[in-house]
Write a structure and sequence with these properties.
Layout lengths: L6 E7 L8 E7 L8 E2 L14 E7 L10 E8 L9 E8 L1
Length: about 100
Amino acid sequence: MTTGYGYLTLWVNGGNAGGQDIALALVDANGNNLPQVSVNSYFGGQPPRANRWQQLRVPLADLAAVNQTITGIMVQDNRGGAQPTFYVDDVAFTP
């Protein structure tokens, strides 16, 4: 349950190439995909940087996840094709 939390916080690394266009969405208790957002929007419109960890803080309101039970997190291509490898770490709901 996301009650008491305001953000989904995680770290993203663009791997050797960087420049990915990544979408992020949550899954509710009924298995429904909640609205997705572009990760780049939270990096000032820029894609993840190569070989650099960047903290991503997405307001739960942007993910339609306020006071929701969340059963999954989706991090996926937002371009419609293959992209360079990227890494995600330290995923948490935060106040």
